[in-house]
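Z., the sequence and structure:
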Amino acid sequence: MSEIIFRKACRSDLSEIISLVSSAILEMEKNGIHQWDELYPIPEDFSEDISKGEQFVGTVEGRIAVIYTLNQSFDDEYKNGSWQYPNEPFGVIHRLCVSPEFQHRGIAAETVSYIENELRRQGIKAIRLDVFTENPYALRLYEKLGFKKTGTVKWRKGDFNLMEKYIG
């Protein structure tokens, strides 16, 4: 597989990001994963993330293969987590999504590894995220990568595991 080139998303990426997410939703639905829909995530989420400089893309041969949002923002429900590193600086991964055209090639794992290295360079010691309990692919990925469950929260679509990994 060709190398993934990671960079901040720019406004001109928005239509490709929206198209990637739409195709990913269809793929998830085919696999019985009813996680994302017309209410979340919406184009405005990605537009806002781009404006804040928090939306990233990974390109392969000039095409967007993976997207993610990285920041230190989290929903109030994150306060319910039994975080193992509560006093360490942390980053939060949101909406990591691999284009169906590029799935099953290790891109998600490579992306998380890239994120870990970038956060370490910034002095960040931990990563937090939430995973839909009915998405076996994502659950397996994050467990394999060393993330530990710290709690469960309930949102509109069901239960989500709060997960954390120490990278310091």
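The two ends are 29 Å apart (CA to CA). The longest strand covers residues 63-71.

Let me know what you think.
H.
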